[in-house]
């Protein structure tokens, strides 16, 4: 049988038994929990605790996305030249440290810097993650592997805000970002 036919026959359960696919899906899940928390709860923190206006909040969110989009290509090139696992680890850990810094943020400039750093660190990890997923896809079906990773992303975007909403009632808004960093 052709490689395409064999790939179509592999189940999601089989894919999730592969350590690389597990690692990729887990990283994407955690990264998406952080993203869901950022987009849901950073505006609440900024409004309620830091007294920022809507324009400032929009600028912080835009900075996250702008920096992330600008550095995707250079980090993609880097993922073709060096260890992809190292890029994922650096992006994940430094992004988490930036999340923890939200706890100490005092205003617009702090959140703007944190948003830019967080966006850049996510952008460092994602091209490397996608490249590893493409390599794994040659064995388990490109679409199936990407489906597992996108499923993990969707689950994280759903779990993050729900869990954060429950935790916010107990620990407060600032502590949510420490939770996200630890996750």
Coarse shape:
globular
Rg of Cα set: 18 Å
Helicity range = over 70%
**End-to-end span in angstroms?**
42 Å
Specify the structural class: mainly alpha
N-to-C SSE series? HHHHHHHH
Low-confidence stretches: none
Biggest pleated sheet: none
Treating each run of at least 4 consecutive H or I residues as one helix, how many helices? 8
Strand portion: under 5%
How many extended strands?
0
Query: Whole-number average pLDDT?
Result: 91
Would you mind describing this structure in some detail?
The protein contains eight helices and no strands. It has helices at residues 3-9, 12-16, 19-48, 54-79, 84-101, 108-140, 142-171, 173-182. It is globular, with a radius of gyration of 18 Å. It starts with a helix and ends with a helix.
Summarize the structure.
The chain has helices at residues 3-9, 12-16, 19-48, 54-79, 84-101, 108-140, 142-171, 173-182. It is an all-alpha fold and 183 residues long.
List the helices and strands and how they pair.
Layout: H1 3-9, H2 12-16, H3 19-48, H4 54-79, H5 84-101, H6 108-140, H7 142-171, H8 173-182
Defining traits:
globular; single chain; mainly alpha; 8 helices; 183 residues
């Amino acid at each position: 049988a052709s490689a395409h036919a064999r790939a179509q026959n592999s189940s999601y359960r089989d894919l999730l038994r592969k350590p690389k696919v597990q690692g990729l899906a887990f990283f994407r899940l955690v990264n998406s929990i952080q993203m869901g928390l950022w987009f849901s709860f950073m505006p609440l923190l900024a409004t309620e605790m830091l007294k920022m206006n809507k324009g400032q909040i929009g600028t912080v969110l835009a900075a996250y996305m702008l920096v992330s989009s600008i550095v995707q290509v250079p980090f993609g090139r880097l993922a073709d030249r060096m260890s992809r696992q190292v890029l994922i680890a650096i992006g994940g850990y430094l992004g988490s440290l930036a999340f923890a810094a939200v706890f100490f943020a005092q205003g617009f400039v702090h959140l703007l810097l944190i948003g830019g750093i967080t966006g850049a660190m996510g952008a460092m990890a994602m091209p490397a993650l996608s490249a590893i997923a493409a390599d794994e896809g040659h064995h388990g079906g490109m679409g199936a592997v990407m489906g597992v990773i996108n499923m993990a992303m969707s689950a994280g975007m759903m779990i993050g805000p729900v869990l954060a909403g429950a935790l916010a009632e107990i620990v407060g808004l600032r502590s949510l970002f420490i939770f996200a960093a630890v996750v």
